[in-house]
Amino acid sequence: MSDMSNFNNPDFAEGLRCQGLGLYPQAFDFFITIESAGLERTFRKCCEMAWSNQLQERQMDRLIYELDMEVKRKNGIAVYNYGLVMEFKRNIPKATELFKLADELKVPDARTALMRILLAPK
Question: Which domains are delineated in the chain?
């Protein structure tokens, strides 16, 4: 089980509290620190913040850096989450590439996401 799924983690709880108060930079710092130290690095909360327009440019840069590292590690769930962020940012070629890789890495929802992009009206 990853640290992020442990709701008893005080840093996770503090991150959620900060997020709820609109203190997005502080929330991001809690979530990215937890993810960076974890064994299952999915960056889910950080990605959720990205597609909710809660990240500043420097935080987005840090998240992209971390996600690029996970692509190199072939971390399927992180690759899929990265694809969702790129889809939100309307970088469809990058999202397509990431969803294809996530599908190859056997991430269950990746094929559905890939089909959603490929079948979307141009």
Answer: 3-118 (1.25.40)
